[in-house]
Amino acid sequence: MENGNPMLAIINADLLQRDRKASHPWVVVVEIPYNGKGTNGMPNTNEYELLNVIEDDIMSQLKDVDGYLNIGRQTAYSMREIYLSCKDFRTPSKVLRTAQLKYNQKLKIDFSIYKDKYWKTFERFSVSL
Asked: What structural domains and CATH numbers belong to the chain?
């Protein structure tokens, strides 16, 4: 990053090249802040493990075969962001509200769901081939 801190992003580049983006017009962005002080904005070992547990829990309920595509995640600036593209918005809303309640004593989970038919949100991750 500009400030010299690391950023880790794992993005499914094949999905970004997909030509049927409009079939999954709903974008879900999950934001999980953590304490990155003293670790250059990255999570410590315990936080990293908890972030992965939360993400795995969410993704186990929002499967690609059911219309929930995991675009990827980004970790930097004391924030984990998880990106999905979905056929509908109702189920992700319920799953993420349940996750908020389940993990609220450990980490705060925020999310937004909005329509982005052509995935403009993810253009910053596109790679020119």
From this structure: 8-120 (3.30.70.100)
